[in-house]
Amino acid sequence: MSDTVVEIDHLVKRYKELIALDNFSLRIEKGEAFGLLGPNGSGKTTTINCLLSLLAYDNGEIKIFGERMTPNRLDIKKRIGVVSQNVAVFNELNVYENTDYFCGLYIKEKEKRKQYVEEALEFVGLLEFKKFYPKKLSGGLLRRLNIACGIAHKPELIIFDEPTVAVDPQSRNNILEGIAKLNENGATIIYTSHYMEEVERLCSKILIMDRGKRVAEGTSDELKSLLKNTENVIVTIRKLSEQSMEEIRALPHVYDVKYMNETLTIKCSGGKHNITHVAGYFSEHQMDYERIYSELPTLNDVFLEITGKELRDKE
Amino acid sequence: MLFHIFISRLKIHIRNKEALMWSLAFSLVLGTLFFVAFSSIYKSSRNTTIPVALVEGEGMPALPVEDLGEAYDFLQNDKYLSESSSFSEMLGNLTYEDGTKILRVKTADMEEAKTLLEKEKVDGIIDTGDVTDIKLLVKKSGIHQSILTSIVSTFRQYVTMITETALHSPQELEGVLNDLEEELSFVEEKSLSGENKDPYVAYFYNLIAMMCMMASMAGVAVPIECQANLSDVGARVNVSPIHKGVYEFIGLLAALIVQIVITMIGLTYLIFGLGIQFGGNTLVIYLTAILGTVLGVSLGFFIGHIGNLSSKTKYTLLTTVTVGGGFLSGLMFAQMKVIIEKNVPFLNRINPSAVITDAFYSINMFGISGRYYRAILYMVLLTVVFLICGLIMSRRKSYASL
After folding, report:
1. Interface with chain A: mutation pick from B398, B399, B402, highest number of A CBs within 10 Å
2. Quick one: pLDDT at residue B41?
3. A159, β-bridge pairs
4. Selected residue with higher pLDDT from A191 and B169
5. Does A269 fall in a domain?
6. Where are the alpha helices (DSSP H) in chain A?
7. What ipTM does this complex have?
8. Range of the domain at A191
9. Which sign does the torsion angle of CA B127, B132, B133, B137 carry?
10. What confidence category does residue A314 fall into, taking pLDDT thresholds of 50, 70 and 90?
């Protein structure tokens, strides 16, 4: 039996003239934490909505658990949990009732449902808030309730569509820890975000997309290995002569040097300890600098190198 | 599972204080305002005895029965004519349904009667100087004057009919008198009291009809909360394994129950709180209001499913249909329904407001009659059409955009 949980083949989705998904394909294996990374408008949410049969698409095929997904495949839907970008709860029901309500769409047995709801609330840390109504919850707690409503029925495949948008750092950390735990417990995770750090931290496999197309796919390291640039050494220094620039450019692994606003950026390809060579050069030439540090490339650099633009809008 | 969802839906409706307040406040506040605005007129026209001066001709008999030849025997045995030894006594015997006398008759000569009218001690003068030409003198117009006009006009018709029949077709007199007795009893029990109790009650019937249409707001929310392109909760429901039609049906049922309770509270407040005396059977009024509420919710349910409109557009459309429909059915301008009936009668059959209003109008004017049953039939038909169309459109589908 195949371990492939999700198969999307040559998916095409058009909004009039705009092509939102352009022959987009992906495969997700059982137990994977699969990250769908891309800037706003890249087609991540459209992919998820097509996957869930919420959106009609123009071409292609979608299979979940080896079966073709359609709006009427209630048997497949029963095995999926969705945590949407927007909080989808009833303001008139308290934390417990909301979780119980949505869990009730999947689980018939009252006792089993009660147990699942308690477990979900404990999992997201909302047990002590179970009598609270959504309006009384902070943004972070509300997000956690949104997660509880999406996972209470213990789904095999859980889709998180940008669950940390507008969440404070502490809550974001809690949410990410929770998702990692769900994955450890055996759930297959699809995680969409434009926060590369989150995807890097959570996902065992990452697909970068832009304008409805695959840009690259692999593990974080695999993606970064696509880059020529393996390390950036940044030095804050008041003065730098042209001759020094040339000498630094000649150091091992250095392929590009830029000096601007008292900041020297040295791009290196190969090796991860190029900072020692650079620091050694300044020491040898008795040149004073204010600060020196090293930056490893991020997925944003991967995206930048492939597409020529940033993953995330400057915030 | 379904019962669990149903109970939760009820909780959602009951705890939605804003919506609940608006629905309840509408009937309670508007009902109270109507009551305050119309109570003085309402009370003045409600079973009050009208003082009237009667000017009888010299030596005038109660009725010229002795001159009617072979018809005399029939007239001697006639209930109304024999029980009323004089015209004055007959007028004095007219009563409302609750036994209250309609007229307080003061016999006077013309001069004294005019003085009484001038001083507004009486509302009118009935001059029977010539029995074939009974005259009514009033000083101003009003409900009491209208009732007097109606009585005198009816009496004139009877006298003419009896006289003509007795003189030209005496053999038909018995049948004519029987018909007149039936009509007289209708005049006493229906026209002046019974079903057609009070013209101002019609405003309250219109209010109940409007309450029924207000229920459509709860109806439109049901599909909106189930559609992925209209609400976040709708998206969550659409990715769940519950059958969408079943889910919507449960939501509809919960909305219906809450709205029916709201309508019943409003109606009970009008009847028992404000003491509005609706004509006809109270149970029938309650049942009609329930059916009207079902129609209102169904209308909302149907509009909630139309096309790929935004929820805001759907609410706007619904408001247009209910308020516009209310206007066309005469809720704001009574003659409008008549104008529509004359020019585009079909519109009155498919306009839910018009159909509901017509049912209450029928109870008000004619009691449980053919017209009432026809209105009920249209209400049921419209409800069924709205529900079926809504449920068909609710089938699980993928959206072109979200």
Report:
1. B398
2. 61
3. A82, A190
4. A191
5. yes
6. 44-51, 74-77, 95-103, 110-123, 139-151, 169-184, 196-202, 220-224, 242-249, 274-284, 299-307
7. 0.84
8. 4-224
9. positive
10. very low
The reply to whether residue A74 touches residue B397, judged by beta carbons under 8 angstroms, is no
Above 50 in pLDDT, residue B293?
A: yes
Q: Do B239 and A55 touch (CB under 8 A)?
A: no
Task: Tell whether A49 and A169 lie within a shared domain.
Answer: yes
Residue bearing tokens 């020491």: A283
Q: How far is CA B117 from CA B6, B50, B66, B151, in A?
A: 66, 12, 33, 18
- Which residue from A158, A84, A197, A113 is spatially nearest to B234, judged by alpha carbons? A84
A284: domain CATH number?
Answer: 3.30.70.980
Structure tokens at A38: 């891309």
Backbone angle region of A41, left / alpha / beta, with phi > 0 → left and psi within -120 to 50 → alpha: left
Report the C-alpha gap between B359 and A107 in whole angstroms.
45
Residues of A in contact with B233 (CB under 8 A): 88-90
Instruction: Read off the DSSP letter of residue B270.
Output: I
Q: Are residues A218 and A250 in the same domain?
A: no
List CB contacts (< 8 A) between B228 and chain A. Answer: 54
Last residue of a domain, one of A176, A194, A224: A224
Split into its structural domains, chain A has a count of: 2
Contact call for residues A162 and A196 (beta carbons, < 8 A): no
Residues A181 and A284 in one domain: no
**CA distance readout (Å), B119 to B25, B122, B123, B214, B228:** 45, 8, 10, 49, 74
Same domain for A263 and A192: no
Q: Chain A residues with CB inside 8 Å of B400's CB?
A: 55-56
The span from the CA of A292 to the CA of A145, in Å, is: 44
Task: Answer yes or no: do A92 and B15 touch at CB < 8 A.
Answer: yes
- State the CB neighbour count (10 A cutoff) for residue B163: 17
Range among A144-158, A161-175, B39-53 rated most confident? A144-158
Cβ–Cβ contact B19 with A under 8 A: no
Structure tokens at A162: 């940008």
A179 and A74, same domain (yes or no): yes
Q: Which of A57, A88, A105 sits opposite B242 (nearest CB)?
A: A105
Whether residue A100 has pLDDT greater than 80: yes
Q: Residue A133: closest CA among chain B residues belongs to which residue?
A: B15
Q: Is the domain of A123 the same as that of A15?
A: yes
Scanning B225-264 for CB atoms below 8 A from A yields 228, 231-233, 235-243, 247
- The answer to whether residue A312 sits within a structural domain is no
Using CA coordinates, name the residue in chain A closest to B238: A54
Substitution target from B240, B244, B397 for chain A, most A beta carbons within 10 A: B240
Q: pTM of the entire structure?
A: 0.74
Nearest CB among A54, A93, A108 relative to B8 is that of: A93
> For the residues A189-200, what does the mean pLDDT come to?
89
**At A37, which CATH number?**
3.40.50.300
Let me know whether A114 and A262 are in one domain: no
**Minimal-distance CA residue of chain A relative to B236:** A88
Q: Kindly state whether residues A179 and A149 are assigned to the same domain.
A: yes
Domain boundary among A183, A199, A224: A224
